[in-house]
Structure formats: C-alpha cells, structure tokens
Amino acid sequence: MNTKSQVNKICVDCKNEFIIDSGDLDLYKKVGLTIPEQCFGCRVKQHFAFSVFGKFRKGVSALSGENLITVLPEKSRYPIYTSHEWWSDAWDPLSYGQGYDSKRPFFDQLKELQEKVPRPHQTGENSTNCDWCDDVWESKNCYLCRSLLNCENCSYVYRVIGTKDSFDILYSFNLQGSYDCLFCYDSFNLNFSENSRECIDSYFLFDCRNCQNCFMCWNLRNKKYCIRNKQYSKEEYEKELSKIDFGSYKNVKILKDEFENILKENAVHRENFNLRTTNSTGNYLTDCDKCINCFSWEKSQNCRNHIRGMNTKDSIDQTFTWNTEVSGNNSGVFGGFEIKHSSWSDGRYSEYLDNCVEVEYCFGCVGLRKKKFCILNKQYTKEEYEKLRAQIVKDMQKGGEYGKFSPYSLGLCDYNFSNGMIYFPNVKKEEIIKKGGYWLDDDLSSQNGLSSLEIPDNIIDTTSEIYIQALICPESHYRFNISQAEYEFHRRKKFALPRLHFDLRIMKRIKKMSIIKSYPYKCFYCQNDIMAYYPPKWGYQKIACEDCYKQNIA
What we know:
The chain is 20% helix and 32% strand. Strands 7, 8, 9, 10, 11, 12, 13, 14, 15, 16 and 17 form an 11-stranded mixed sheet that branches. Strands 20-19-21-22-23-24-25 form a 7-stranded mixed sheet. A 3-stranded mixed sheet has the order 26-27-28, with no helix packed on it. By secondary structure, it is an alpha/beta fold.
C-alpha cells in the first residue's frame, strides 16, 4: 500500500517488506535522495563494506617502502601510503584524473579510479606514539586501539573518548584507571562494569550512578560500600572485598558468570539507553531530538536511520558519520553539508566521494584535498562541471545507478574483516560474493606460541617474562602478546591476565550494543506493552518502560 504518509516496498536484497514512512519521505526530499530499494538493514550492511575493522599487521608503503602498521588488507586493491606521505606533496591526486566515458557504467569507472589512488595506512590526525592504532584522533601513547579521541595511555579500546590509563574499554567516555567497561561515563577506577556513570573504585556494576566502593551491584544511586546491593560499613566492605581474588582467571570467570546471571534475574533494564533525548526512537542516544531509528548516536537533531555518530542535523541513512548537515546515504563521512553517497570524506555539495578532504562541488572523486569542480579526479571549470555532472546523473539514472550507494565491489576490505561483522555476525561468504564483495579465506591462525590457557591461573604466579611470550588464543587461534604496559597495569590492579585475543574480546563485548532490532515485552512494573532492544535469548526478566524505570530506579 502506498499513501501520502508511507510507501510499502520489498527489499531487493533480502526480499522482506519494509516501510518508508512520512518522516523518511520528508528527509529524502530535503536531502535530495531517491527512495531506497533496500530495507534499513540491507542498506546498513552495504555501508559497512566501507568500514574496516581489520587485523593489525605490518606492511610497507607503496610509495617509499617505509614500514607501516595498518588494518587495511594485505591484498588491497589500492596502493597504501604512510599517513604522512599521503598528506604530503609527494604525489598529486589530480594526476590520476580520468575522463568520463558515457558508454561505461559509472561505478566501473569509479572503481577503476579507486584502485589507482593511494590511501593512508591509518585514519586519524594529531596523535603521538599511536602507531598500532587506527581511526585515532588527538591521542597519545595508545596501543591496539580503534576509534579514539583525546585518549592517553590506553590499550585494546574501541570507540572511546577522553579516557586515560585504561585497558579493554568499549564505547565509553571520560574514564581513568579503568578496566573492562562497556558504555560507562565519567568514572575513576571502574572495572568489569556496564552502563554506569560517575562511579569510583568499584567492580562489576550495572546501571549505577554516583557510586563509590561498590561490588557486584545493580541499579544503585548515590551509594557507598555496597556488595550485591547490600549496605556495609566501610570496615565491613573492605574486609569482604579483601576476600575476593581478582588475580585468579578462574575466579574472575566465576564472577563474570555471576554478573551475567544478575543481569538476567535481578537487574532492571530500561527499554532503551537513551539519555537527554526527546521525540526519538532507537538505542544508545544521547542529547538527541527527533532522531528516529538511530543507534549509538549523540548530539543530533532530526536524523533518521543512523548508526554510530554524532553532531548531525537533518540527515538520513548514515553509518559511522559525524559533523554532517542535510546529508545522506553515507558511510564514514566525517564532515559535510549536502554530501551524499560518500565514504570517509569531508565535503560540501558533493556526491560519490571516497577518502576526500574539504572538497566542494565534486562528483565521483577519490583522495582529493581542498579541490573544487572535479569529476573522477579531473579538474573542470564551474560551467564544465555542471554540464558534465548533469550528463552523468542522467546516464546513471538510465542505468539504475544514481541514488544508490557504491556497490560492494568498491568496498575497502574483505567483509569478514569489516565492522559489518559486529552488527551482522551471521552474514555468509556466499551472500557477499554474490553481491560483488570480498571475503578472506586465508587461515590467520597460528601455532607458534603457548596456549594462553597454559599460563599460571593467578597473576601473582607470573613474571615479567610473560610479555616476551607469544600466546595463542584458544578460540580464534590468533597469536597475541601481553604487552609490558598491560602486564604492569594488571599487576598494579592485581587483575588476572586475559586469555583471549584482544580483537575477540572487543567482538564479544560489543555484542550488547549492536542490536538494531527491537522486541516486544511487557513492562516489569505496569505490564504495558513495550518494545526493547534485548533479544529474548539473553533471558533478561525485568525490563521496564521508561516511565516506570524513572519512578522506581532513576
């Protein structure tokens, strides 16, 4: 059924029915996008072909042979330069310019250009001693991290801002001296915790606010010296806490199992994790207004169908983007106004950009910086640009290309090493290959090392020699090491050493934040029907509507 208020469609990829409602239609018109042929999930899945998770590896620059460390694929379709080479004047992006051929599909020509133009080995700017990192901005002394801003002395963290001296942190902000946290804010020495804020010197907290010296607690506000939600005196608390051995890996595993059972049976869960957010739907929204079907999004207004980003207004269908306005159908765009169908770029009034910075009025360009009126990296006058652009759009419309996002064949990596595997872990090789994408079948496992299960159970029984020992993860079979900084951190905290490869730890931890489908529940308190972002298989028994949660918990 098609009405003025919505359009019902069948997804060209998964063949499921989906709805484009009136709000979507209004934004598509405002941004200048055609109505998509894919459902939301399939659109996002394609966007993720341009979002590299990768596996850290050593390589060399295609320009100079200089050593580099990158998450880009070893068998890349494009040259890789070191970042400082890419930003230098040692090469000219316009030298790769090519004329438009109206007899060939546009995406074929864009792919041809993409495979000639170099890419920087690492995304990010203004960082020091962060060689083993990617997508890191204004940070210092970080190791094996992804997606950081203003961080220092961190390792194995992912999408973290303003954090210092912390390890194994995911999607958290302003932590210090913390370990193994998910979606936590403004805390010091917070460990093994989820969804907690303004907490100090605590362990295994869930949904706690302004708590100090607490252990294995949930839904607490403004408390001190609590264990399993029971109040203790300072002396009693310290005595009980001293009995808990965080240095034993086996004991920490028991504690983690207890924590998960508490989440299932005792903790009250809000129907969503939206904070200071109005007139919006989705999950993990902060300081948003009129953001519909958005996830892990902050400080934005009038956005729809977004995953992971911030500082956006009047935009639709974006993944991993920030600082955009009146824009849509983008993946990894980090700034722009009226930018569409683009990836890893910053531009204005432009379309089909890949890895461009501060460009205007460009179409189908790769690797340009501060250019204007370019098509396929070739310079034109304003009049020539407008005439040729109109012709290309007309040709693309005839061929069914215009308005669609760049196909999987232009993806930046093997899909099984993209961020898509976080949100679509069950995607199959056959599906990606059929769509023209890429998949790595190489066996990256290793037997050259000691199984991490064979190291001493308790950290007090280890020595500093551990950080020169190659370890093998028992699940992924990847080789990894305990770094010197990591070992010293764990010894200082008297925490057990990890047994799993750091990438696997990230993948396991982020599952709770990768749900983009809601499920029907009854509110634990009022029994009203609600939709919440907890798969039934998680077994959470106490899910509350927002009003009841505020009355009973907040």
